[in-house]
Amino acid sequence: MTPKCQYPLCRSSVPQVLEEEKLCALHLIRQIDAHCREIRREALRGPLPLDRRAEINAYLYSQAIILAQIATSGERLPDETRPCLLSVFLNLINVCEKVARRSGEEHEKPSLAPLPPLAVAWPAAAVK
Question: Tens digit of pLDDT for each residue in 24-55?
């Protein structure tokens, strides 16, 4: 007998990969997405200490492994779950880059130099 998701009012079965979390794939994906939003907000507040960055990177890595296991487990995923799975993978990548960028930001300040005109930056754009 397959276990059921522990999320309130959810009757979905829990894939074997997620038996430890006791959540269906869709609710795990939503939980990861919510954590990514929290991490992004935390990174926007200011530079993160080294130990917190290591903790965040370990979390992102572990969640990416779990998502990869869900995607490659061979179990059929509901149609609404597949796009969410890809979206949260991209979200994990973006959060990881954001944390890395914020950690190096204390040494670099972005310049506000104006961009060159499109015809200079890309000569083919001037040709009609």
Answer: 888 899 999 999 999 999 988 888 888 999 89
Enumerate the domain spans of the chain: 16-105
CB 47 within 8 A of CB 106: yes
19: which DSSP letter?
T
CA angle 118, 124, 125 (to 5 degrees): 40
pTM: 0.73
Alpha helix (H) residue ranges in the chain: 25-45, 50-72, 81-104, 118-121
The CA distances from residue 29 to 2, 55, 80, 85, 91, in Å, are 19, 20, 11, 7, 11
Here the tokens at position 105 are 């930001």
